Known about the structure:
The protein folds into two domains: 2-90, Phosphorylase Kinase, domain 1, CATH 3.30.200.20; 92-126, no CATH class. It has a five-stranded antiparallel sheet, sandwiched between helices. It is an alpha+beta fold. The chain starts with a helix and ends in an 8-residue tail after the last helix. The chain has helices spanning 2-8, 45-51, 54-64, 96-106, 112-118, and strands spanning 12-20, 24-31, 36-43, 76-80, 83-89. The protein is globular, with a radius of gyration of 15 Å.
Amino acid sequence: MERLKAALAARYRIERELGQGGMATVYLAHDVRHDRKVALKVLKPELAAVVGADRFLAEIRTTANLQHPHILPLFDSGEAEGLVFYVMPVRRGRVARGTAAEGAAALGRGGGADRGARRGRAPVRA
């Protein structure tokens, strides 16, 4: 995390880790320029070294083009010191996994929505 803090110090102040998935780690950060809390999703460097960043970059492109009330917008993205990242809003409240799982259960769908949450496709909550 020190490498990330140093690489993004001028733009974001990393506060703590919110969670991890197979591809990336999400951090709670403070957007220095806009004085707001954000979720910073960073591709795991070891994964980027082995398989490249193409899939993560495709996720960034897709997210940047989505507009829907239930999808968080993309605030920023980029690369710093070899770390590929994107930034989205943080929602206060329960964690995304619990919320998505509860919604799936209410709809009688089991774990489908929960799988989406684990892959980082549900709102990030702090």
